[in-house]
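quick one if you have a minute, typing this from the bus. theres a chain ive been looking at and ive put its sequence and its fold in token form underneath. please have a look and point out which stretches look like helix strand or loop to you. anything you notice is useful, everything is just below.

***
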Amino acid sequence: MAEKKKSLWEKVFGAPHHSGRQEKVMEYIIHRHASGASLSDIVQEEYVRRNATPAEVEEICRHPKLVQSAREQMGKSFSSGELDPKQRPE
């Protein structure tokens, strides 16, 4: 039996996420941070404020290395082909 792939959220935070919302917020933050925006500015943007709970924002701000770790993990997933849109999930 094939092992279920872990989500980005689960790889970074070590726990399964409860919705796609959390993962989309993290992907947004990673993308904005990679383009040079500061984490403190990103968490004030409307998209994050509407889609992340205050507790999630606080957790991300308390641990900025999580964003860097997530960015590195996403880079590994892209370079390994794991996130290739042409591949179908198992």
The mean pLDDT is 75. DSSP finds six helices and no strands in the chain. The two ends are 10 Å apart (CA to CA).
